[in-house]
Amino acid sequence: MVAATDIQARIAAARLLPVVVLERADDAVPLAKALLKGGLTVAEVTFRTPAAAEAIARMRKDVPDMLVGAGTVLTQEQLADAGAAGAQFIVTPGFNPAIVEAAQSAGLPIIPGVNNPTGVEQAMVYGLETVKFFPAEPTGGIPFIKALTGPYPGMRFVPTGGISPANLAFYLTVPAVLACGGSWMVDAKLIRDGNFEEISRLTEDAVALARKG
User: Which single residue of 54, 182, 193, 208 could bond 25 by disulfide (Cβ 3.0 to 4.6 Å)?
Assistant: First the structure.
């Protein structure tokens, strides 16, 4: 089991957390290898499709250098499936105390979603130091995150939702931003078409852009 501090450090080092939707588990390993080739060693596989758990399991088995998290975890069943598949961290779109408690009981680091001061304070009650800021652009973006850092200077944010090459570097200039979540480099159509070379190219470009932040 990887400690929460180590998970945070690895995501911080990557500066970018690709949000992956896999319709077929067979695409999991080629995708993970494409991300590695492009310079990313972390991925969030979302539970938006039935293939998620198997995809996570295959990545963990065949691409051990990849730090693999489970995203869009909404239920206790999904959390259990993610843990059984070998997910190393959990990401949720909102703050569900029951899911947070279950993840912590299972020893799974969790990054819950918030977009207001109440959510940040809930996270603090559970001893969390990192939250997902979602949806980032529709709920205030960079100015809102900067406003939150005043009363909550110790909290780190992973803004997700509306992040693109056009604004990635700007988000990463904010000291409280640990990394940004994004999906443009792992576009579902590219995955369906098996265009993993393009995914590697887009990932390499995104990594270079993130380093400018």
Answer: 54
Residue 57 has phi, psi (to 5 degrees) of -60, -40
161: left (phi over 0), alpha (psi -120 to 50) or beta: left
Preceding peptide of 159 cis, ω within 30°: no
Among the options 33, 37, 44, 61, which is catalytic? 44
Tally of structural domains, the chain:
1
Task: Give the β-pairing of 89-91 and 16-20.
Answer: unpaired
pTM: 0.97
Q: Which domain holds residue 154?
A: 4-210
How many whole angstroms from its chain centre is CA 75? Answer: 18
Please tell me the predicted confidence (pLDDT) of residue 187: 97
- Write out pLDDT tens, residues 17-68: 999 999 999 999 999 999 999 999 999 999 999 999 999 999 999 999 999 9
3-class SS of residue 130: strand
DSSP one-letter string for 137-197: TTTTHHHHHHHHHTT-TT-EEEEBSS--TTTHHHHTTSTTB--EEE-GGG-HHHHHTT-HH
146 is catalytic: no
Residue 82 near residue 59 (C-beta atoms within 8 A): no
Q: Which of 23, 129, 132, 189 is catalytic?
A: 132
